[in-house]
Design goal:
heterodimer; A: 307 residues; MetI-like fold; 2 domains; 17 helices; B: 300 residues; mainly alpha; two-stranded antiparallel sheet; 12 helices
Chain lengths: 307, 300
């Protein structure tokens, strides 16, 4: 918060405001800021409406002639969050989600680091062909894989409608997401920037490949690895389609399914409670984003320059 | 001799990733093509092969036309709008100093959010009696509209949400592109007193063209797969409240999952596979056309 205030630099802004004259450049500046502010409001509105509604009482929502744009602190109905947590087992859903995110992220890290190492550092027959084949799969819509993966998982008995056990649900939810072509590609690009001299020097000293990977490459690439961990965990948190397909018991669902299923009937929704539930799902993502923006941005700018 | 080929070792490092990819990526890819040509496939067995029947069934599906219509509107309306708006925001955001950090953070926020949760918030913004949109319209004396109650207004709502959801990633990519443009070009333009709009069309757009091409391709592919935003806004039935099925917001991906959910009926999995192949061919064609256009237009 202090940082934001510091960035705003209000004192200086006020000084500038006093000196203001209507020149052509100033009018342009006003137009630019108005445009940006308008769209910033557009972007922020859904968050604001979600928070605002989650703090209103149902009575206020349904009896007010027009929805109010503000709730006074003393009128805030924090109780909605409690009723949202009572309405569906969100704590259980969150625990499931965290567990699945942990398993699939550990899996992804292990498989992508070792594969990216092979592609970036080792010489082997067919390396470039194999790498191209992997890259090519990124062009294919994921739905094509989902169909067979669903058959595979049900065929293995991990998603049986009535007899599914918790370990089966965990395997069904995490196994297909324990590796990723995009992350292999992303990590390989980072590994490639590490100078060959380091590797050759390590070889001269008799360091094994595995030790070199563990002691040199992984620490150097750690920002990229952190990015992968964050993106992967956030992906699990927002996953909807696959968990919906392969979980057959209410208590094995992940947060996003829980949220959608708890507030589906169109009639008689307690909107404030629904928005409180939506906030419970959204809030952790916003916190992670604001704290770890730097790492998330790395992934994006990398995606942007791969073309 | 230090860099000798080490085949066995390399394949050992690749093994965990390749094993998983074989089961969950490569095999499903081939299997999708196999399934699409099987007759009455159910529970792992089929009665033979067919040539085009599964594809014909997809096209004959009562929802197919609706799905193509919805998907096309989402693709051809939301992508141009969101790319243009994102480009304008990025260029302007890059040109200012004060509040840049704060505004940037706000514009990036939608990138991480959950399509279902935000879809529910949007559904409440578009709510007829309690929604924000109708409140704002009442300020300019427009009567309340039941935004999610019919296909036409529902589509407007969906497009607004889709554009909203697409802005953040595009702005992020454009901004990182803008920040990597060499300042010399702008200094030269300033020396020549080039008008701002000309600087934009002659320097910024050409130098940003690889990012614009990349964003256009990925947004087209992404919006061809529209589904989660719709589930967020309208619920799993993808129907506007109290309307007929022919007014549904089903998309191609929605059709695939609907067929897949009936996997215990003979032939439905094959229909899902056939629909996914149609989707793949469409996105591939778009990617190729885009790349072909880019090759002529993009300045590298």
């Amino acid at each position: 918060m202090e940082k934001i205030i510091e960035k705003l630099n209000l004192k200086e802004f006020w000084k500038d405001l006093k000196k203001f004259r209507f020149t052509k450049a100033n009018v342009r500046t006003i137009a630019v800021y108005s445009f940006l502010l308008l769209f910033a409001i557009f972007v922020f509105i859904p968050f604001y409406w979600m928070i605002l509604t989650s703090l209103k009482t149902l009575e206020e929502i349904e009896t007010a002639l027009q929805p109010s744009l503000w709730v006074k602190f003393k009128d805030m109905a924090f109780y909605n969050y409690y009723s949202a947590l009572q309405a569906a087992p969100y704590i259980r859903y969150m625990a499931n989600t965290v567990l699945i995110a942990f398993i699939s992220t550990v899996g992804t890290i292990v498989t992508t680091i070792s594969a990216a190492f092979a592609f970036a550092r080792l010489n082997f027959k067919g390396r470039d062909t194999l790498f191209l084949a992997l890259i090519a799969t990124m062009m294919i819509p994921g739905e094509m894989f989902v169909i067979t993966n669903y058959l595979t998982v049900t065929g293995l008995g991990w998603a049986s409608p009535f007899t599914q056990t918790f370990p089966e649900a965990i395997m069904a939810l995490s196994f297909p997401f324990m590796t990723s072509v995009f992350y292999i590609f992303f990590l390989r690009q980072t590994f490639k920037t590490i100078p060959d001299e380091l590797y050759l020097a390590a070889k001269v000293d008799g360091t094994s490949d595995f030790k070199y990977l563990r002691r040199i490459m992984v620490p150097i690439a750690s920002p990229t690895i952190i990015t992968i961990i964050i993106l992967n965990a956030m992906g699990t948190w927002s996953a909807y389609i696959w968990p919906n397909l392969v979980t057959s018991k209410e208590e094995y669902r992940l947060v996003t399914n829980g949220l959608r299923n708890a507030y589906t009937q169109n009639q008689g929704i307690a909107y404030n409670e629904a928005m409180a539930a939506a906030m419970i799902v959204t809030f952790p993502l916003l916190i992670v984003f604001l704290l770890l923006k730097k790492y998330i941005m790395r992934g994006v700018s990398r995606a942007g320059t791969k073309g | 001799m230090l860099e000798k080929q080490s085949n066995v070792k390399a394949w050992l490092y690749l093994l965990p990733a390749l094993a998983l990819l074989s089961v969950f990526t490569f095999y499903p890819l081939f299997n999708a093509f196999l399934l699409a040509f099987l007759k009455d496939y159910v529970y792992g067995s089929a009665t033979g092969f067919v040539f085009m029947d599964n594809f014909k069934n997809v096209i004959a599906d009562p929802n197919f036309n609706q799905a193509v219509k919805n998907t096309s509107i989402i693709v051809f309306v939301s992508v141009p709008i969101s790319v243009t708006v994102a480009l304008m925001i990025s260029v302007l955001l890059n040109s200012i100093k004060k509040f840049q950090g704060l505004l940037q953070t706000i514009f990036f926020l939608p990138y991480v959010t959950n399509a279902i949760a935000i879809g529910m918030a949007f559904a409440f913004i578009f709510n007829e009696s309690y929604g924000l949109l109708n409140l704002m319209l009442s300020w300019v004396n427009i009567d309340p509209v039941d935004w999610l109650g019919s296909w036409e207004t529902g589509m407007v709502s969906l497009l607004i949400y889709t554009v909203w959801g697409g802005l953040a990633f595009k702005i992020m990519v454009f901004l990182s592109g803008l920040q990597s443009i060499d300042k010399q070009y702008y200094d030269a333009a300033r020396v020549d007193a080039t008008p701002k709009f000309r600087v934009f069309t002659r320097i910024t757009v050409p130098l940003l063209s690889p990012m614009i091409a990349y964003i256009t391709v990925t947004s087209f592919i992404g919006s061809f797969k529209a589904y989660r935003t719709i589930v967020g806004l309208f619920g799993p039935t993808v129907l506007p409240a109290g309307t007929l099925p022919d007014e549904s917001f089903i998309t191609i991906v929605g059709l695939i999952y609907e067929s897949l959910s009936k996997s215990d009926t003979p032939g439905m999995v094959s229909e899902a596979a056939a629909a996914s192949i149609l989707l793949f061919i469409t996105t591939l064609a778009f990617t190729i056309v885009n790349m072909w256009v880019s090759k002529k237009r993009v300045h590298f």
